[in-house]
Design brief:
A two-stranded antiparallel ribbon has the order 1-2. Helix 2 (18-27) crosses helix 3. The chain is mostly helical. Helices cover 64% and strands 6% of the residues. The chain is built from six helices and two strands; from the N terminus they run αβαααβαα.
């Protein structure tokens, strides 16, 4: 996945923009193949980018890219992922209760 990231990172700043990601998915056979292998061919490219842009800053680092693609790939959830969801739900519940 890191090599795919580096191929798509046209300006070499080790951050992918939505445009670089869209271009890579549309024009690079290796990227298309990997998306199909991870069963992500049906994802909207912009939607997928938004899911892996954890900082919501419009760019994705190589670590975010790898972690994000592995996280959204189909398969059973790990205990760590389930605990993360539980934590997020508790945090949101507490925020709602506090009127935030």
């Amino acid at each position: 996945l890191e090599s795919l990231f580096l191929m798509m990172d046209k300006d070499g700043d080790r951050k992918l923009t939505l445009q670089e990601f869209e271009d890579g998915v549309a024009n690079m056979e290796e990227v298309k193949h990997e998306m199909t292998r991870l069963q992500m061919a049906s994802f909207d490219v912009k939607e997928l980018f938004m899911l892996i842009d954890f900082n919501v800053n419009g760019t994705v680092s190589v670590d975010d890219f790898i972690e994000g693609l592995l996280r959204v790939a189909p398969g059973p959830a790990s205990k760590k992922e389930l605990m993360g969801v539980q934590y997020d739900l508790h945090r949101m519940w507490n925020m709602l209760g506090a009127g935030q």
